[in-house]
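Q: What changes when phosphoenolpyruvate is included in the input?
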Amino acid sequence: MRRRLVVANWKMHGSLDSAQALLDGLVSCIGDSAVEVAVCPPFVHVPLAVSVTTDSAIGVGGQTCSEYDSGAYTGEVAAAMLADIGCDRVILGHSERRQYFAETNDQVALKAQAVRRAGLVPVLCVGETLEQREQGRAEEVVAEQLQALLAEPLQASDVIAYEPVWAIGTGKTASPEQAQQMHAFIRQFLRQHSAAEAEAIRLLYGGSVKAANAAELFAQQDIDGALVGGASLDATEFAAIIAAAQ
Ligand code: PEP
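A: The predicted holo structure follows.
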């Protein structure tokens, strides 16, 4: 039985004050939960998040990291540094990283290896653009992204987030059927390559998830939770998404 997981991606939002208020809100809204919950703030707000969530069940993660362990890579942050300050996971290959920072499939695979070396869990994002979906290439694109990740065997603790690019921050959600279809495709792909891990790896859906659409997404067989952007910046809304996952 896969434990449901809901991860917040705060992207580059917030100040120290607003992060504190959001974290306080989350800790008071989310008590003991059967659902695993994590927040991924900007790097500079990670220590605050770790400190505020210390006595709660909420985990903390990074939004990206370097593929290198250390060295002359100005501006980069190593996975081990995130582990050092209390992170337990790292989002990798988010479509905004791929689109604006030219991250490639191979780079995402190297980052996943660096994250595992540091003892952290990679949350691996895959997903097609609208153009690719309209060309009927959605599964092909996702398969290519997954194939690159197999440079090192996937682990049962790894998390994969299917995030159709056309649904991120646009208010357009994939229908539950569209999302389930791709999740089933991903699970089947995993079965062919890492049979033992395929049933354990949690598949999150991401793309304009909110309290109003969460329950119907979570009702799908292969949707094990969500990666939530915009709606995670509101403690009440995020708590309602978590409640829908119970
Ligand atoms: C995301 O950033 O991973 C995301 C899914 O964003 P949103 O929920 O705002 O679409």
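Observations recorded in class: The chain is about 45% helix and 15% strand.
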